[in-house]
Amino acid sequence: MTTTTPTSATPSPRLRVALNGFGNQNKEMAKMLVERNDVEIVAVISNKSNVGKDFGEIIGFDTPYGVLVTGGSEASEVLKKTRPQVAMLSTLSTVGDIESQLRVCAENQVNVVTIAEELLFSWTSAPEKTQEMHDLFEKNNVSLIGSGFIDGACCDMTRTMAAMMHRIEKLEGGLQYNVDQYGKVLAIAHGVGLTEEEFYAPETGPGLTSPTSYPKSYVYNSNEWFAAALGLTVAKTEEVKSPTKASVELYSEAIDRTIPIGQCTGMTVTATTTTKEGVTIIGKQVGKCYEKDDEDWCAWNLEGNPGGVGFTMKAPPTPAMTNTAAISRMFQAVEAPAGYITTDKLPTMAGYVHKCLTERGSVE
Amino acid sequence: MTTTTPTSATPSPRLRVALNGFGNQNKEMAKMLVERNDVEIVAVISNKSNVGKDFGEIIGFDTPYGVLVTGGSEASEVLKKTRPQVAMLSTLSTVGDIESQLRVCAENQVNVVTIAEELLFSWTSAPEKTQEMHDLFEKNNVSLIGSGFIDGACCDMTRTMAAMMHRIEKLEGGLQYNVDQYGKVLAIAHGVGLTEEEFYAPETGPGLTSPTSYPKSYVYNSNEWFAAALGLTVAKTEEVKSPTKASVELYSEAIDRTIPIGQCTGMTVTATTTTKEGVTIIGKQVGKCYEKDDEDWCAWNLEGNPGGVGFTMKAPPTPAMTNTAAISRMFQAVEAPAGYITTDKLPTMAGYVHKCLTERGSVE
């Protein structure tokens, strides 16, 4: 949370942004951010590659942007020097996975928006680590916000729709996405390339669920988000996982090998939340390597009064909307209360305003 | 706009609501409002019938609610006596149609939420009358807000979705509704029961469009809303109307007669807005008497970066959502700035909160 308030007498300075992680997502994020009048990328941090190169050249600019990619070990130093107001953290999926990156940001008083899926609502899936991060960010007077496709296309859209309900009895919906678009770590977590036996193997099987199994699914987190947003008290959230299986031999880019017929291409998870108020929330995610004709979808329906309220997104551009949702939250992050702030506590995403774009053409 | 601020030490008092008009829409609205802990209906005003009867008995309660329906001529008197904070005005469609009802509310310092379709954004369709009403409400320190299905399901949902766009080039969408659900005045305005010749007849034909023809379509108003919400400058909005025709002989409840094959069952309107920024907005409304298999729909798509962002509502409960959207705005009305405030200037609809409902069962 910044302490300076821009006055109406002077134009708002551009938002100073760091990209923490420079893989598929943040490279696409960078292309969007450089087309905005209201944003300046001041730091790009990567653990993996391209360290020392100009980030503009990496994403295809003709001329350098003037910001070199910094290695992760120098993150603290570069944040101190460049003083970004917000870091877009796009690396791994859970609060534990990104803890060290979060610490560096918090300690340098940089607000964070992350697409780490668990951070949509990690209060119940990882309560201790979440409390620790909340305290750390609060102490440093900056905010930590989890966003992405589910925040925008599932949660925020459904919250807007839910505002047109008189009485909700049940919320049911979900999404499907192509795990091949999100890299190896996520594919392995989805059981891609396993046999059914391996999928359910004791100790190691990603298909096992129990009250204590961890990490939880994305829809576990979004169910808990919905309960908080609708003012409900969760009695229990349970999830069931089952493998999706190859009906044809299928090459997976994420694990870089061919999956034989019958082996796992990913998983379906159904998370069911019951509440003290009697409202049921059912979230379903299907994450798998796509066969011909598979495409992303997102659909949510509300039962109650009135009946028949729901919406469907057919073939939404899920990876791109992960970035655009996070960008919408980026502007809220600098105004949000300090600490870990779930987006059910924030206003709906900041609206699109055409005049924020530069006249410059797209880099794509 | 109220000037009192509830303190956290005392529970908020219930919102004092008047129903202005007691036809189909406000009767259903009443059923919902009496199930809320946070609302009290203090006045019901009707020009038509049921004057002197308890409104609870009219909507099917076993016991009287204790509020009698008041005739329109006594509206000012009853508002003075009961001091509602907001009136839900559900009578006719244009700012001119409801002017006298608006005056009575404003002069008694009652905020108004109306489902009169033009009021979604009447600044450009009826600029003089709108300015007059704006000044009147502002002077009396109360707000006037237009809401309904289009506000919620089209505008607010699409605004939430638009927040996930990086660059918008085109917004295209629309809705279909059954004119038989909204009474005779609306059906006649849609050309129900006319021949094609009558539909386009000079002077009187509802299908005629010109830069000065009035009233404009609902999508004319929603296009202008979108332009305002997205920070665009309208160059021009044009609309084209064409009749829908009976493919089978069809009884229309609204005009209480049978429409022969080939005659008009309603109309399709396409409104196209061009903007100085180069963004195009195309809204399409189909309002007609339904034949077998016809059903309501609402769908909006955005073109630009990313591509493929859109949503569809299949068979939404349009009349009920007209009420629930207006109820969501009702709470914003008492906090809104004084004057005529279009909802593009307001936050997204207030969220559903289960605890606002009473334990009492539904009256349906």
TrEMBL record, chains A, B:
<dbReference type="InterPro" id="IPR036291">
    <property type="entry name" value="NAD(P)-bd_dom_sf"/>
</dbReference>
<dbReference type="InterPro" id="IPR000846">
    <property type="entry name" value="DapB_N"/>
</dbReference>
<keyword id="KW-0560">Oxidoreductase</keyword>
<dbReference type="GO" id="GO:0009089">
    <property type="term" value="P:lysine biosynthetic process via diaminopimelate"/>
</dbReference>
<dbReference type="GO" id="GO:0008839">
    <property type="term" value="F:4-hydroxy-tetrahydrodipicolinate reductase"/>
</dbReference>
<feature type="domain" description="Dihydrodipicolinate reductase N-terminal">
    <location>
        <begin position="16"/>
        <end position="113"/>
    </location>
</feature>
<dbReference type="Pfam" id="PF01113">
    <property type="entry name" value="DapB_N"/>
</dbReference>
<keyword id="KW-0521">NADP</keyword>
<protein>
    <recommendedName>
        <fullName>Dihydrodipicolinate reductase N-terminal domain-containing protein</fullName>
    </recommendedName>
</protein>
